[in-house]
Design goal:
alpha+beta; Substrate Binding Domain Of DNAk, Chain A, domain 1; 4 domains; 15 helices; globular; binds adenosine monophosphate
């Protein structure tokens, strides 16, 4: 059977893993690193991916895009160097790069993948992720929830355990909580809850807004009018946020409108950070409580709390966990890596690898799925009510049927509107699509129509209508702003990707140094800046000279200059020079 790679396609970073010789292992990228920032940029009309694209976002915000996973499943497009891309297209570029890294590492072509998504991703977002895989030339064997992937790693390494775990997954843009029971190799997810727009980036943003407020500026105005200032400030706040894990106070420099550092500084204490992000922390609390309630568990019945996702490194999160559960969270596996490793374990399960033959895993549907119905009060009909068909935390795959009835004699048309959510009124839930039929057989009011919802292991929903009177069946294809692209449209997206020129991979490492050095230009004083710029110019020139000796000397010169300025170039810092 073909190799199946496991991919954690994250908001800020992506990773790739494979199950080899009886265990999951990470695959390094072309820089020898496991984390590839989920960033895409265009340099000289050529695509760059990863760290250099992330650095480029700081110096030339208009030429790079980050955090595009936040727009998965929507129509929002990002503009990079004047070219428009949607979220699946940008994600496909990252996936294509990971696929190539895997092929280089394994020494053969890779076609199949398991891709992880936040548990709380809805139908649109899951389909958009699958689409990204197809555009990248990957056959997506399974979409799996990120906390489930993390749970698989813990289950894989502790197959004889008998315990209840809670997985708290706070990434760059999403938050999931999952409760799982392990018993003699069987892993049973009992509940999942979360929010798909809550992550570490929100904490960084709150910090940036507060800093601007201290110097009399308004976040929206700065974002709109001074993008260079904004991206530089976000980078500085990201660094400050990380420092607040070990320090009690940080100082943040204020960039000017071109994004260059000024002497003006604002200090922030840990307590101030805690205060300005208290609303975000309250939002974290709700899914934790809901997951406990749904699995009928009390906090003291949870044996281990597992932290996943970079943002769980914030002391705010670990302190909160300690307070609620009265025990320290456990981080046996690196929170950045565990999801990709779990995707590789899932790949092994799909392939029936002997190393996982005793493992059985069941997952649940994280939210309630249902449809709009009309309720009659007295003689009046009221629209807009939600009829749940599959309740949240039902074990998947699942297929459930409800019967609805026509409201008029000889009614010909019927529209089933499909929603996801927990509210009794559909206006407060998310519309996933609709299925309309126009040829109901003539019958008096009250003609039954069976509506079947089937939710598969990928978390993708299919709806089927069955009309008992004439035996006809209709299947969704949910319409309504769902990106259900036809094969032709997918092919055109594939062509668009193929039409892009990628920066030659063997030169990308050097390009990364240039982009990083450029991102430092704005952080040093005028005198240092001039000499740094000269050194960058010399290195760029040497790159194209073709003379190895000149090139090596210029490279060493630039690396030394960066170190002497207090910003050594490190390959493993995700673009952050801490
Ligand atoms: P992920 O998507 O799991 O890679 O998580 C990325 C998020 O984790 C970003 O918002 C980062 O700012 C945040 N993060 C990563 N490392 C740290 C750290 N040491 N302290 C605080 N936040 C961090």
């Amino acid at each position: 059977m073909e190799t199946i790679i496991g991919i954690d396609l994250g908001t800020t970073n992506s990773l790739c893993a494979v199950f080899k010789d009886g265990k999951p292992i990470l695959i390094p990228n072309n820089q020898g690193e496991f984390l590839t920032p989920s960033a895409v940029g265009l340099v000289d009309e050529k695509v760059i991916v990863g760290k250099s694209a992330k650095d480029l976002k700081v110096t030339q915000p208009e030429n790079a895009s980050v955090c595009f996973k936040r727009y998965m499943g929507t129509d929002t497009e990002q503009e990079i160097a004047g070219k428009k891309f949607n979220s699946p297209e940008l994600s496909a570029i990252v996936l294509k790069t990971l696929k190539e890294d895997a092929e280089k590492f394994l020494g053969h072509e890779v076609k199949d993948a398991v891709i992880t998504v936040p548990a709380y991703f809805n139908d649109h977002q899951r389909k958009a992720t699958k689409l990204a895989g197809s555009i990248a030339g990957l056959n997506v064997k399974r979409i799996i929830n990120e906390p489930t992937a993390a749970a698989l790693v813990y289950g894989f390494h502790d197959q004889d355990a008998d315990k209840k775990l809670m997985i708290i997954d706070l990434g760059g843009g999403t938050f999931d909580v999952t409760i799982m029971e392990i018993f003699e190799g069987s892993l049973e997810i009992t509940s999942t809850a979360g929010e798909s727009f809550l992550g570490g980036e929100d904490f960084t943003f709150r910090m940036a807004a507060w800093v601007l407020q201290q110097v009399g500026k308004n976040l929206e105005m700065v974002e709109f009018r001074q993008p260079e200032l904004m991206v530089r400030l976000i980078k500085l706040c990201e660094e400050a946020k990380r420092k607040l894990v070990t320090e009690t106070e940080v100082s943040i420099s204020i960039p000017d409108e071109k994004g260059n550092l000024t002497d003006q500084k604002v200090s922030m204490t840990y307590d101030q950070f805690k205060e300005i992000t208290s609303e975000l922390m309250q939002r974290l609390e709700k899914p934790v409580i809901r997951a406990l309630r749904d699995s009928e568990s009390l906090p003291d019945e949870i044996d281990e709390i597992i932290l996943v996702g970079g943002a769980t490194r914030m002391s705010l999160v670990s302190d909160y966990i300690k307070k609620l559960f009265k025990k320290d969270p456990c981080c046996q596996h690196d929170p950045d890596q565990v999801v990709a490793l779990g995707a590789a374990v899932q790949a092994a399960l799909i392939k029936d690898d002997v190393a996982v033959e005793d493992m059985v895993m069941t997952d649940v549907c994280p939210f309630t799925l249902g449809m709009q119905i009309v309720k009659t009060f007295g003689r009046q009909n009221h629209e807009g009510y939600f009829l749940p068909v599959i309740h949240r935390n039902t074990v998947i795959p699942v297929s459930r049927e409800e019967t609805v009835f026509t409201m008029h004699d000889n009614q010909q048309k019927l529209t089933v509107e499909v929603y996801q959510g927990e509210s009794r009124k559909v206006k407060d839930n998310i519309k996933l699509g609709e299925l309309a039929i126009e040829d109901l057989p003539p019958a008096p009011e009250g003609q039954p129509i069976n509506v079947r919802f089937s939710y598969d292991m990928n978390g993708i929903l299919e709806v089927e209508l069955h009309i008992p009177k004439n035996g006809k069946k209709y299947r969704t294809v949910l319409t309504n702003h769902v990106k259900n692209l036809s094969e032709e449209e997918i092919q055109s997206a594939v062509k668009k990707l193929q039409g892009l020129k990628f920066y030659p991979r063997d030169q990308q490492a050097n390009r990364d140094i240039v982009v990083f050095a450029e991102s430092i230009v704005g952080e040093v004083n005028a005198f240092e800046r001039e000499s740094l710029e000269q050194t960058i110019d010399a290195f760029e020139h040497a790159m194209s000279s073709g003379e190895q000796e000149i090139f090596e000397a210029a490279k060493q010169e630039l690396l030394m200059r960066l170190s002497s300025l207090g910003h050594p170039y490190k390959k493993n810092t995700e673009g952050l020079n801490e």
